[in-house]
Write a sequence for this structure.
């Protein structure tokens, strides 16, 4: 899979790129997947940097609640101003805010080169002048300290609660296959790493959790990966799951 970049590689005198990540740990994982692709394309990676000489900036946005939207918009505007003054050459925006409000953002902040949603990793890589590599699926450029990392076990949600935008942004619930989770966890386990956070929007919806209890996934990973899963982040659990978790 390879398409021509949206701008010529000759314009990129320095292959330094700044990836700025806002929002939850799900976005951190998405950015880490992106950075693994960029690193293989010989980019020098800067993460959440305000002092780099990177001429290309990618902002991974959050669009869940009002404060998060405001932070994302202000961050985009800050880099748009930097582009206007010649401090950076190219600005790309991805993530939840862009997924939900792409048309509005294109009209209101046209300084951004391109907007991408939450499922456009290959398009982003190619837009900045790289080549998306299918063989890197699952690989990440970790940004967390060496003693822990996040493991995204699913995406989306089926509940459709009136107060929650997750289904609108991330779609319906899709679980990552166990074998893929094990491979990813094993690949990113350092000798000194003792904790891996299971970061999932609907932990109790993972296959077999409803029948065997939400701890099922933790126990399975413990058996198959040489690390200790010490914590998990469970967002949006329903009351019927609480007893299973607390047992």
């Amino acid at each position: 899979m390879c398409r021509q970049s949206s701008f010529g590689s000759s314009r990129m005198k320095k292959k330094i790129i700044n990836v700025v990540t806002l929002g939850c740990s799900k976005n951190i994982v998405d950015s880490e997947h992106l950075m693994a692709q960029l690193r293989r394309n010989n980019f020098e990676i800067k993460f959440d940097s305000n002092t780099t000489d990177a001429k290309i900036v990618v902002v991974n946005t959050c669009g869940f609640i009002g404060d998060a939207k405001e932070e994302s918009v202000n961050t985009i505007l800050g880099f748009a101003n930097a582009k206007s003054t010649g401090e950076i050459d190219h600005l790309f925006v991805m993530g939840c805010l862009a997924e939900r409000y792409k048309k509005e953002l294109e009209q209101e902040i046209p300084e951004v080169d391109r907007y991408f949603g939450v499922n456009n990793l290959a398009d982003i890589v190619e837009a900045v002048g790289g080549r998306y590599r299918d063989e890197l699926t699952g690989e990440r450029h970790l940004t967390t300290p060496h003693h822990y990392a996040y493991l995204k076990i699913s995406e989306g949600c089926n509940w459709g609660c009136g107060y929650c935008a997750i289904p609108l942004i991330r779609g319906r619930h899709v679980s990552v296959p166990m074998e893929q989770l094990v491979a990813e966890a094993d690949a990113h386990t350092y000798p000194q790493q003792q904790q891996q956070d299971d970061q999932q929007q609907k932990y109790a919806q993972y296959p077999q959790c409803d029948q065997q209890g939400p701890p099922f996934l933790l126990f399975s990973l413990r058996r198959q990966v040489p690390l200790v899963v010490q914590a998990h982040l469970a967002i949006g659990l329903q009351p019927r799951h609480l007893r299973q978790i607390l047992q």
Summary: DSSP finds nine helices and ten strands in the chain. Strands lie at 16-21, 44-47, 56-61, 90-95, 114-115, 148-152, 154-155, 174-175, 195-200, 231-234. Confidence is low (pLDDT under 50) at residues 1-12, 208-214, 230-234. The two ends are 47 Å apart (CA to CA).
